[in-house]
Amino acid sequence: MTDTNLDQILAKRQTARKEIVNVDEPLIKLVIFALGEDWFAFHGERIREILTKASIFFVPGCPGSLEGVINVRGDIESVIRLNELLQVPLPEPGTPSAILLGSGTAMNSGIRIDRVVDLVDIPQSFIQPPPANLPDQMRPFVSGLLRFKERPVSVLDLEQIFSQYVKGLG
Amino acid sequence: MSSDVDQQQVGTALALVLFKVGQHCFGVEAASVRGSGGVPGDGVLPVESLLTLPGSTDDRRQSLTIKGDRQDYAISVAAPVELGTIPAEAIHPLPVAITARCRLPGLRALAVADHSLILLVDLHRLLQTSPKADLHQDGKP
Question: Given this model, what pLDDT does residue A9 score?
Answer without folding.
Answer: 76
